[in-house]
Design goal:
Length: 122
């Protein structure tokens, strides 16, 4: 059985600041993707996943909207601009910012039961 975590759990695990979307922190996620290439996110990420990325531009939010992602975690304490935050609010996509790098962020979430988007058995 897949194990899920809530976005509130993600925030706690990654010591992440919630930029917007606090009303969605009870939502659960079961898969995540760590990536900076939005073409790869589009090709390999399952709908309903969590995206972890170092990119903070509006294209990240547009990609999340297209794929119906549950939220975006910006790594390395990165924060998007006001326009990107406003777009995420319009789409209802929670944004978080974690001090950890991409590799550590993914590893911490994987250790708590959040799985990747590939079909490879682990």
């Amino acid at each position: 059985p897949e194990m899920g975590v809530t976005l509130a759990d993600v925030s706690a695990i990654l010591h992440a600041e919630v930029i917007c979307g606090v009303e969605r922190l009870h939502d659960s996620v079961y898969t995540a993707c760590g990536c900076d290439l939005m073409s790869d996110v589009l090709a390999f990420t399952r709908p309903g996943s969590l995206l972890l990325t170092g990119l903070t531009n509006s294209q990240v939010v547009r990609t999340a909207e297209i794929l119906d992602l549950k939220g975006i975690v910006f790594v390395r304490n990165k924060n998007p601009d006001a326009r990107t935050i406003a777009m995420a609010k319009d789409f209802g996509i929670p944004l978080l910012s974690s001090p950890y790098a991409l590799y550590e962020s993914c590893g911490l979430l994987f250790a708590q039961g959040l799985r990747g988007c590939t079909n490879v058995e682990t």
